[in-house]
Specification:
13 helices, mainly alpha, globular, 297 residues
Amino acid sequence: MRMGALEWTMMLALSLLWGATFFFVEIALTEVGPFTLVLGRVACGAAVLWIVVLVSGVALPRTLADFRDLLVMGLLNNAIPFTLIFWGQTWISGGLASVLNATTPLFVVIVAHLLTQDEKATVPRTAGVILGMGGVAVLVGPDAFHGLDGSLLGQIAVLCAALCYSFAGVYGRRLKRFAPTVSGAGMLTSSTLIMLPVALFMEGVPAAVPSAGVLLTWVTLGTFCTALAYILYFRILATAGATNLMLVTIMIPPSAMALGVIFLDEQITPTTAIGFVLIFAGLLCVDGRVFDRFIRA
């Protein structure tokens, strides 16, 4: 599937919202545990989207199949990957996490090829996967052979989240029957119900109320980086397909890394830069436009 100007505009907006997510998470983790932070994010996002749903008067899910699909999406697109990324960010920077998260389209190529009939892997996409995974190898480096320390586990956690997102991108095509706001609200409600007992078991009730700055960050995560972002997410998924949608991750790392450098004094190492360039090259191959123009020329 090809994307027009509207899809690219929505992709840009979505990339800015999700790029800022890594920055906001890094701030909030100074006072809130990762499981509790995930719970707050999805609960806030669900509340905002249900207000939009009720005001707009769109059709609501009614059947067991509807609730099943929303529950599965809540697991694949929220509960599991959010937890993995937030926990991973307790060990690695938001900039590095965003780069590793950019591998999502590479996993989508594999998953979509295996599980769909209309998004099969091509030669350029296969080359893109090989290039991108080379970038991951550069980022992880030889530390992978020296035991599982916290930094390596954090990187692995984010990569597992990217793999989970790839399954969500393919499975989410089943939700085309819903309005984007209903898909987002139902999915986030499901993940809230999942994360409530998990957060209470893992971290208990917070001993103190977070500071005003962290609370504002939390609300921003839920309202803009989650509720608004998923309205865009499902609109793009319905019109452009899973593989094109996951290309949004190509645009996330620059904004996430820039925010980290400016406000959190993070450093972009040469290894991170090289790894990102390889992943970026892989994503361009997955997109295929470069190859098409080269062939036409």
